[in-house]
Amino acid sequence: MTGPSYLEMTRAAYDTVAADYAELVRGMLADQPFDRAMLAAFAEFVHDGGDGPVADLGCGPGRVTAHLRSLGLSAFGIDLSPEMVAVARRDHPGLRFEVGSMTELDLEDGVLAGIVAWYSIIHTPPELLPTVFAEFHRTLRPGGHLMLAFQVGDERVRLEEAYGHTVSYDVYRLSPDRILGLLREAGFDVQAQLVRERTPSEKQRQAYLMADKRAE
Question: Which segment of the chain is annotated as a signal peptide (predicted)?
């Protein structure tokens, strides 16, 4: 796979840390009531809309994909990192995981009932987020549901060490208001937003946004 340098950097970093990252986040949702609550609300909206396939984009080791399946959704995962996908397939052999990029999804138009991007838009330069949101819009059916989670802020952070490994990639803290505006411009109606305060182990507040693809 080839692509912009930020994609190559992000892929290389997550290929490097995949195994250790998977161990770190394993079982983490059990201690995150806000995360579980937002994912449960998302699942309820998808069920009410008639169900259908749900893509966990930037799925990493598949923990959120598996949680979505436990909520009764037909969830599958896509991740930029082949090593992350390998770990996800190993840990969740009954689920579907594929290598791919949010900037160019190998999915037909209007095929998805829902998309979850759980702390996965944070590696995309903000000026390129309209391209990502256009792909979300293209692949969701009218009325389809989108859930985003990200760290709150307005800065780029270059990481040179992560999860015990030497790496080099960027993380972007994002303004909820800016993301709300970009979603509306991309053809989404925002249904809910939640910004929670950071925990002692976090450096930033955390944001959750839920939106629907505007009906034609």
Answer: none
